[in-house]
Amino acid sequence: MTWPFENDTSAVTRRLSNARIGQNRFRNRLIGIIIFMAAAIMAFVSSYAYNITNEYAASTAYQGIFQNLSQENISLLKEDPHIQKVGVYQSVGMTEQENGITMSMVCSDETTMQLSNITLLEGRMPQAADELLVERGYIDALSLKAGIGDTISLHYRNQASRQLESKDFRITGFIQTTAENDRDRVAYNAVVSQNFVRENPALSTGPVAAMVSVHDTAKYTNQELKELIRTIGLDCGISADNIQVNNLYIDSNNMSKETVLTVLLVGLVLIGVCSLVVYNIFYISVINNVASFGQLRTIGTTKKQIRQIISREGNYLALHFIPFGCMAGAVLSFLIDWSAFQLLPDIVIAFLSGIAVFICVRLSVLKPAKIAMSVSPVEAFHYSGYSGTKKRKKSGKHLTPFSLAAMNLSRNRKKSILTFISLALSGMMFIGISSLLSSLDPEQRAKQAFPYEGSYVVELNRALVTPTFSLTQLQENNLLTDELKNDILSIDGVDEIICQQEICVGIDGMETAIRSMNTEDYKELKNKIMIGELPDYDHTGENSLVINMGSPELEYLHKSYEVGDTVTFSQAGNSLTYTVSAIVFDRDSSVSFILPAGEMEQTVPYNANSAFVIRVKTDSFAGIEDELHSLVLASDTLRLKTLKDMTMQYKSVFSTISIAAYALLAVIVIFSIINLANTSMTNIISRRKEMGLFRAVGLSHRQLYHMIGFENSFQTVGSFAASLICGLGIGKAICSAIGNVPGFSFVNYTFPVVPVLLYVLLVFMLQLALTKWAGRYCRKNSVVEQLRVTE
């Protein structure tokens, strides 16, 4: 009951709270740093994730693409009640590379431009055959100095005929795409008119495509929307292989449950660790001042007022450091990807992140406040905050620093075990994930594209293959000839060339490939036979087809074969029938169907070579690449791949992944270390009187130092040992599981030497720093001072 004449004590509690804040500057700075870090990390992770997701979502506005369409297909799509918009387009060609710059040419209607988020900045849509829209960035990149009404000459490869053509176009306007702000951009876009396509014999009969958006997408789940796109396509008579679902757009605009759970999990881990650290720091402050709170209780301060004093401290620190942390996180998000940064949404996200951290701080001070308000005035004068255990029988053994440390740890097992588990779990995560990151071998990943231990591959340029221009047509004028092979062999340092052959065929309406089996393949496949008899590489005859049941393609198509089965393929209107002679299992190969080289040469009338794999002599790389480039660049139907370049590409990719993973791990480890530091400080500060008693009965400073060292070693060295043993086991299990996934054989367990050494150094420094601090803290206070109940 509140009496009308009761005094308002809010001013008193405010002054007491302000006095405590002014006295505990070190503690305030420590709590402030933790709160700042938590707010900054939360704001950065939240805003950056939102920006990237929104950037993906804004890159397009369609849910599906349908290819190789007839006019009847398009009419049915436009009549479908589920579809909101249909944009029809046709790929026209690609300009020849000039100073590293290329441009894609598309015939598109305005709906397609809207669904592709292509904006007409100025001018008008092209109408005549010699008109086009172009990105201003292309003009600037090539320093053409052309504007609306000016003419530019383009040299491009016709998408339908695959022939190089030249034409002068008059610019009718400029467009802007979502890639405008991309750094180091080398590819641009242009839009031509329908009249241009009609006047070109090859393009006028070429296939068209359509992109669609669906009505009321919000009422569908991600999976339902994807299935709806496929159903619409099939109902309109479009084959499954010509239906392309825009998974990235769907998942970006309507985040899947897995994505949401992952984001929430990361946020909860960060908030949980932050809460634990803030709680420990306030706990130290409260138990170190329980006597002071007891004095306040004796003069009439209520439990509610004690709670208000501590709550005001938490509010003060939160409100002073959270805004700066949120600002820092938003600024970091802007610096990392300024093109995706959105001012108003990111400010709102940073504000919400600040609210989450503020709630975290408020929850963190509840337990310390409860301790302060629940201890009675009499009990407060001998309260240590250090829970005891049941009395033990007297032992005749001599007390040593080690036995004293063991007794102290056992007296507060709960806190010791929780701190140990916190450190061990973060260490296990660090070492386990480090094992995986250390096992990502960029060279082995690159070698998957370089069979037979080759260092270079000269292959057909598959970038030229389109729905209207097949691999078979590319092989009709195949430049992978014996003459080119001899020219390559004449290069100094080249040791051997192994030829790969491949033909493009169809099976059950799906396009696939049959690969030839040369002598090197024969050696490999002999060890992978599951059933049947492997034919020789020069075998000819109908009983010759080899099936790789480990192929992802067969797994996707749910196809299974047995020895003796007959398999029929179609090629250019002809049927090719083979009998299965052997089943092999190779999960690292994408090849499903294999024929002996002798059989393939007998099957096709043209040169079926698809690649020359080049082996070189050891340390003989100098000059080889330049000469290969001079041979290959003579025609754009060939391309050169080098093991060195691909290894560097994968090294860069794996490095980016490692940096992101280690950054998140570093945050978790740092919070765990701060938690350990605070736990150690709690143990020392809360036992000041006990330390004084030890000193009073003759325990030397050196013995005290060793006792504290043993206590800290249990946490630091003990948790490190647990982290190392369990972390390496977890890492090895993860690497083994991932390495068995098709295409991931490059993940071979490697002991993470550098991360472990860094972790050892961190543990050693942490152990030394904590013990040194504790020793200095005990040394700077005399025995009399340590025996005092209050500060």
UniProtKB/TrEMBL annotation:
Its topology with respect to the membrane?
Multi-pass membrane protein
Query: Sorted alphabetically, which keywords does the UniProt record give?
Result: Cell membrane, Membrane, Transmembrane, Transmembrane helix
Q: GO: which molecular function terms?
A: transmembrane transporter activity
What's any one GO cellular component for it?
Answer: plasma membrane
Which residues does UniProt call coiled coil? none
Q: Where in the cell is it found?
A: Cell membrane
User: Any idea where the ABC3 transporter permease C-terminal domain is?
Assistant: 663-767
Q: Where are the transmembrane segments?
A: 30-50, 260-282, 317-341, 347-365, 417-437, 653-677, 717-739, 751-770
Q: Which PANTHER family match?
A: ABC TRANSPORTER PERMEASE YTRF (PTHR30572:SF4), MEMBRANE COMPONENT OF TRANSPORTER-RELATED (PTHR30572)
Q: What family classification does the UniProt entry report for this protein?
A: Belongs to the ABC-4 integral membrane protein family.
Please identify the protein, giving its name as recorded. Answer: ABC transporter permease
